[in-house]
Amino acid sequence: MITTRDQLIDALGNNSSSLVIDKASLANAAAGQFFSLWTATGVPGAGAAPGAAAVPTNATVGAFGFANQTAPATSYLAWLAVQFGNSASNLEIHDRLAAMSGLSGTVTTAQGALSLVTTNPGVDRIGDANYSDVQWWLEVYTALGATGVNATVAVTYNDDTTGNLAAIALGATPRQGRLYPLVSAVAGIFIKAVNSVTLSATTGTAGNFGITATRPRTSVSAPLLNKTEMFDWALLGLPEVPNNSCLQMIMRCGTTTTGTVRGQGKIAHG
Amino acid sequence: MSVFNVGDTVRVLAPFTESLPEVYIVTEVINTDDDGTVYILGDRGGFDAVYLEASA
Fold first, then answer.
1. What residues of B are in contact with residue A198 (Cβ under 8 Å)?
2. Distance from B26 to chain A by nearest Cα, in Å?
3. What one-character-per-residue DSSP string does A176-226 give?
4. Residue A235: strand pairing partners
5. Which of A21, A43, A127, A201 can bridge B48 by disulfide, Cβ–Cβ 3.0-4.6 Å?
6. B30 in contact with A at a CB cutoff of 8 Å?
7. What is the rounded distance in angstroms from the CA atom of residue A208 to the CA atom of residue A197?
8. Three-class secondary structure of residue B43 per DSSP
9. Which neighbouring-strand residues pair with A247?
10. Is residue B24 less than 8 Å (CB to CB) from chain A?
11. Which residues of A touch B38 (CB under 8 A)?
């Protein structure tokens, strides 16, 4: 565990895993929307739609690779230099805890489920035992149809109560990479499982979407395109990266594309 | 299953009731590429007939 500045400097210089970022842009976004770069081509390679519920790891295509450590040694995201193809780019790095796909934009009955209890990446990756560190999403892998419909998501909370989240307006033609945040409908309790997703009508095209659970690890922003911005351990918040973490990038779009993302980083070990 | 027309007033059924508890007007009827019929409730989006009932 790194607890001193000297240990951090030593780890950055002598004991780190390098990250390389070179992601292509995804189109058909809009300002303010979240887009997953999981399926964007480049480096890391394009991740696949998971199909059945699964726990991805740092060995899964689409994730940043890094060396797992033997306790008490720990990993931390400690340095990042990144250049964006769009101005006002907002990049988040999440640990992709669990995901499933194969949901259809033409099915109007309840479909899909994902539970962090049964599809469990481990307590170190989930964070707080009440699931408050987890962010849930609907993630689009292949565009749905042009008819704008609503999705109601039935969940189980950490206190084992159940309920429906506020209906989510999917809008016309949800595109590859689009993420819809799933937010607890009850203050103070947190989602530990999604039990089903129900569309209010067919979108007209099956497409492919799914349920994803992530844990935010850090967030950076750049005001200008094509200018490299550098973020040290303090700016990144020195987030711990547990063994097997499936680090992926999520863009909070500032315009109609995600823009290219290029850069490098270091995961410090110690 | 009911059939609605543009201008009809409807209520939205579970599991969408909590989020859409009011009476809404059908503003458009769309036949989709997969042979579905979708009733558009203005900016509230599209609904299948199974999730709608006529408002008294």
1. 15
2. 14
3. TTEEEEE--SSTT--EEEEEEEEESS--SS--EEEEEEEEEEEEEEESSTT
4. none
5. A201
6. yes
7. 13
8. helix
9. A95
10. no
11. 147, 149, 201-202, 204
pTM of the full structure: 0.96
Cα gap A258→A25, rounded to integer Å: 5
Tokens at residue A50, please? 């998971």
Report whether B29 contacts B6 (CB < 8 A).
yes
Query: How far apart are the CA of A212 and the nearest CA of chain B, in angstroms?
Result: 21
> Residue B39: which region, alpha, beta or left (left: phi > 0; alpha: psi -120 to 50)?
beta
pLDDT at residue A232 in the model: 97
Q: Is the pLDDT of residue B2 over 80?
A: no
**What mean pLDDT do residues A61-74 have?**
97
CA dihedral A60, A64, A69, A71 (to 10 degrees): -90
State the nearest Cα–Cα gap between A205 and chain B, in angstroms: 7
pLDDT of residue B35: 87
Place of tokens 């290029």: A262
